[in-house]
Amino acid sequence: MPDPAAIQLPDDLRPSDGRFGSGPSKVRTDAVQRLAAAAPTYLGTSHRREGVRVVVRRIKQGLADLYSLPDGYEVLLGNGGTTAFWDAAAFGLIERQSEHLSFGEFTAKFAAVTRGAPHLEDPIIVESPPGTHPAWKGSDADTFAMAHNETSTGVTMPVEAPDGRSADRLLIVDATSAAGGIAVDLTQVDTYYFAPQKAFASEGGLWLALCSPAAIARIERIAATDRWQPPSLSLLIALENSRLDQTYNTPALATLFLLEDTIQWMLANGGLAGMAKRTAASANVVYGWADASAFATPFVQKPSERSPVTATIDFEGVEADDLAAALRANGIVDVESYRKLGRNQLRIAMFPAIETSDLEILTRAIDHIVAALQK
């Protein structure tokens, strides 16, 4: 077998951009150029002054427009990404007990956070095998936690509460890889939280949460009790600072700028419906190729559960690691499988900033490399 790294793709099998990672994801080149142009008066300035606060204000308004934010909903921002938000939710959003749908690495991690919180009752965890998603048990928990899209396995599921929502039953949704790429009705959600380094084509280190009035009331009520919360993880402090168009501690200004730029790009290109149309077209390319292939198969068996933003593709008769090595040698990067899933597969991002035409070229490049490896 030839050395995978020695395989050279012809020019017509090289995408215009070789970044297909599931996070951090492709950052749009024109956004980076605008950041460079703004750098002398933006980067290295105070996040509590108008130059940065206006960017935060535009992010909040842009997300409100993108999601047609219902009356009373607010946009919260904080530092640390989705992982930090899990900790913040355990301190300041879950009152007594949570029920979790666990169907991959990231949904399991949030469940583990609440299991370890000494001030909470043990969570109720409903699991299903990787490549599927479970259904709600429907307990008397006060918080129900799920992911709109499980990034590790490429499974998506409908956003819906088990038995209706109320002030005593909040639905909180991890949208880290879904937000910006999959449509959602926020009237059905109390907290839709995410980080910007995936579909929003920005950098990491930030979390955002779209919160209903019931979620805001829960945050304020818990903060008024004697439950201790670290200030950096206090959702009440995040709420108060977000209302001032800032974060509690210093954010990465490049992350904010790139996020705001992408939100404006999304709004100018059809809004959330336009982005969902882009990802659906890309998903049709990737899954259609895999379904027709002699050596590739979609890992997620049910088409209705296949993610439009993260495709996981199994391979037979060829090592996926060899494919990834050959692609990387040709400037096509970050399609390796999720490390803990342990399957012979590639994981391919299909976020809005990734061109559908580049994904079509990627599938043909994989066919070319497979043929070369099997000589």
Describe this protein's structure.
The chain has ten helices and twelve strands. The chain is of the alpha/beta class and 375 residues long. It has two domains: 4-27 and 271-373, Aspartate Aminotransferase, domain 1; 30-268, 3-Layer(aba) Sandwich (Aspartate Aminotransferase, domain 2). The strands form three sheets. A seven-stranded mixed sheet has the order 1-9-8-7-4-2-3, with helices on both faces. Strands 10-11-12 form a three-stranded antiparallel sheet. Helix 4 (105-116) links the parallel strand 2 and strand 3. The protein is globular, with a radius of gyration of 21 Å. The mean pLDDT is 97.
Any descriptors?
single chain; 375 residues; alpha/beta; Aspartate Aminotransferase, domain 1; Aspartate Aminotransferase, domain 2; 2 domains; 10 helices; 12 strands; 14% strand; globular
Q: Give the CATH architecture of the largest domain.
A: 3-Layer(aba) Sandwich
Shape: globular
How many independent structural domains?
2
Q: Strands of the biggest beta sheet: in what spatial order?
A: 1-9-8-7-4-2-3
Please give the number of β-strands: 12
- Distance between the amino and carboxyl termini: 7 Å
Beta strand %? 5-15%
Number of helices: 10
**Secondary-structure element sequence?**
HHEHEHEEEEEEEHHHHEEHEH
CATH superfamily of the largest domain: Type I PLP-dependent aspartate aminotransferase-like (Major domain)
Summarize model confidence as the mean pLDDT: 97
Radius of gyration: 21 Å
In percent, how helical is the residue content?
A: 25-40%
CATH topology descriptor of the largest domain: Aspartate Aminotransferase, domain 2
CATH class of the largest domain: Alpha Beta
Helix/strand/pairing category: alpha/beta
Please describe the biggest sheet, giving its number of strands, its sense, and whether it closes into a barrel.
Answer: 7 strands, mixed
Low-confidence stretches: none
